[in-house]
Every structure is written in structure tokens, then in C-alpha cells.
Amino acid sequence: GQNIDQPTEMTATEGAIVQINCTYQTSGFNGLFWYQQHAGEAPTFLSYNVLDGLEEKGRFSSFLSRSKGYSYLLLKELQMKDSASYLCAVGDYFRDDKIIFGKGTRLHILP
Amino acid sequence: SAVISQKPSRDICQRGTSLTIQCQVDSQVTMMFWYRQQPGQSLTLIATANQGSEATYESGFVIDKFPISRPNLTFSTLTVSNMSPEDSSIYLCSVEVAGGRTGELFFGEGSRLTVL
Predict the structure, then answer these.
(1) Geometric angle at alpha carbon B74, from B69 and B79, rounded to 5°
(2) Which residues of A touch B56 (CB under 8 A)?
């Protein structure tokens, strides 16, 4: 089965940097994903990591260590619009590559 | 990308009744999924909607409670049967697009059901 852990809530200040951690256990790892979900809206895809290392995309970066079962999402130059839930998810090839989501981290940005 | 229309967007239902949610996609997709998101929780996969055959259900979900249809590549329905207050949730249709980025799911806006 799978187990995905991430903090329930975090608070950061506008303009700052925040790192959201995610640890996972899965039998057939086939990718680590991050999604953003604003309150009352559908989730949207942010990033995908399947190899170890850092993937950078603008203000957002995602890191993966497969040996440690660990990932983080790094948000730089925080803006008020970054207030949202951030969902860590894994793909499992023993489950036909279905995407399984963690409980999400609700990020609050303070002015 | 894909644009997904779900309806109803919200409904208030009586205990014991059933409601069917429709999901229409603007392009042909490879995979369609139904997720549930209970208040303050993350997304739980209910089932994969398979075209022309029975859906594949995840542990804890059964066809009698959540019958699913997918008559073609762009449309699917999820029925929540014999509803109870515990079924109050947001139900989301999700798709993978052929040629899209690995693991990139597109979601509908969701159907928020409240069961009294």
C-alpha cells in the first residue's frame, strides 16, 4: 500500500521562501507529483519528479530523493495568491500508475 | 490540456436518494477517474472509469454504491446511491490526456453534495 505524509498547515510571509516536505512509502514508485488547490477550486498540476534531484520551474522547485522516500516543494518570492493547499501525490505501477494523493498542506501567506 | 465540465456543481439531497454526476471532456482522453474530497481532506480515488467495460474500484468502494458508466471516450457518470450524510463530499472527475505530461491530471470543478 501507500503512505504519504506532509504537514497539515504552514504559514509564511509574503516575499519569503517556504519549503513543504513530503515523505512517502509505496511498493511500486512511479513518480512524485505536486498539485496546487485553491479553496473551492479544482487541483492543478505543478510538478513531476521521477529521478533524484531538483526540478526548477520559475518560483517553484521540487526535489526528490527516492532512497529516502522524500520530496519537497520550494516556493520562492511568496505572493498572496500562493495561499492554497499543496498536495503531494505518488504514482504506483503496481496500481496501474494511478495517482494517490496525500492529505495536503494548507499554506497561509501573511502580508 | 483538457476542459472538463461537471454537473451538477452542487446539490442538496435527501437521505436514501441517489444522484448522478456527469462529466464531459472536450477532447478524447486515455484515462478517466472519479475522486472524492471530503471536507478538509485530500483526494481519495474512487474508481477508474473504463470505456465499454466495468469500472475498476479502489478498496473501500463498490459498484452497488457508486455505479459508473463511460459510454465513450469523452463522457462518464458517477452515481452516488442510497445516500447518507457520510456521503456529503465533493466529487471530482479527472482525466489524463494522451501525449500529456506524465501524471498530469486535469480536474473538473467538482460536484459538492450535501446529504441531509
Answers:
(1) 25
(2) 96
Q: What pLDDT score does A1 carry?
A: 59
pLDDT tens figures, B5-57: 999 999 999 999 999 999 999 988 878 999 999 887 889 999 999 888 889 99
Distance from CA of A61 to the nearest CA of B (A): 16
Q: Would the pLDDT of B107 be above 80?
A: yes
Averaged confidence pLDDT in chain B: 92
Residue of A nearest to B4 (CA): A42
Task: Find the helix or strand (DSSP H, E) in which A3 lies.
Answer: strand A3-5
CA A97 to chain centre: 18
Best interface-test mutation with A: which of B6, B34, B43, B53 has the largest number of A CBs within 10 A? B43
Cβ neighbours of residue A34 closer than 8 Å, sequence gap 6 or more: A22, A46, A47, A60, A62, A71, A73, A86, A87, A88, A89
> CB-CB: which of A31, A42, A104 is closest to B103?
A31
Residues, chain A: 111
How large a percentage of chain B has pLDDT more than 90? 75
pLDDT digit string, tens, across residues A36-82: 999 989 999 999 999 999 999 999 999 999 999 999 999 999 999 99
Residue of A nearest to B6 (CA): A42
Measured between alpha carbons, how far is B25 from A69 in angstroms, rounded to an integer?
35
For residue A104, the chain B residues in CB contact (below 8 A) are: 41-42
Contact A103 B48 (CB under 8 A): no
